[in-house]
Amino acid sequence: MKKLLSLSLFLSLTFLSCSTDEDLENIELQSETSTSLSLKENPHNWNPANTANSYDAAGSLYRKILEEYYDNAPTSTTPSQIISDVETIANSFSEFTPMKNNIYMPLAYSNINWILNTSDSYHIAITNNTVLSMAAKNQLEILAANLTLLIDAEASAKNIHDHIVGFEATIVSSQALTANDKKAILTSTSIARHANYLRRKGRRWDIHHGITGCIQGDTESMAKAVTTAASVNAVGNSVAE
User: Which N-terminal residues, if any, form the signal peptide (predicted)?
Assistant: First the structure.
């Protein structure tokens, strides 16, 4: 399992080539991939949504895509095929098209691989980001630090959810953040909340990779934020370590 900071990313900077990587070798899926998401400690007695977050449709769609993907995942495939499957599933939901904002370039595995394998990608991306304000970057660092403390303290999924909701309230009411800052942060926290609820691989991995993928895609559109985050989860959980 990658280090926490390797699992986090805010890459709103540049996108690598959006062409697919057709020449990848076949990879084995984890032999114990279940036919449904493993919620582990989550008892289904609480809702991962937050109606106070105007961008919560992103996290909701992220969760629905992954639920369908894991319910129907094949036994072996390539990373590029996994990404294609995620995008196909996304397009089957009516809410996905409006999120594209008339802009959507297909995902490339090279982007996903960067997220999964680059050390300290979270801090690198925040530092080099040219879109978000310094205030937004500081808030993202605070979020990561607080989530790290909660996860290391073995806080429950519901406690982590409540912390994220409280953090979102401060973002919504902030006078120091631009509208673009708020959109990027709140889209990310939405996906983080729903990733926390799903807990496929492990809370630390799921939450931080969810944020990572979201911010990589968010500079293009909310749709790309969702599919990037979902593809990171699907590829990362499907490749045997």
Answer: 1-20
The domain tally of the chain equals: 1
Cβ contacts of residue 59 below 8 Å, gap of 6+? 48, 49, 187, 189, 190, 191, 192, 193, 194, 195
How does pLDDT run across 146-189, given as a tens digit for each residue? 998 998 899 999 999 999 999 999 999 999 999 999 999 999 99
In a domain, 98, yes or no: yes
Residues in the chain, overall count: 241
Would 21 be classed as within a structural domain?
no
pLDDT tens digits, one per residue of 213-229: 777 677 789 999 999 99
Residue 210 in contact with residue 237, Cβ under 8 Å? no
Please check whether residue 169 lies inside any domain of the structure: yes
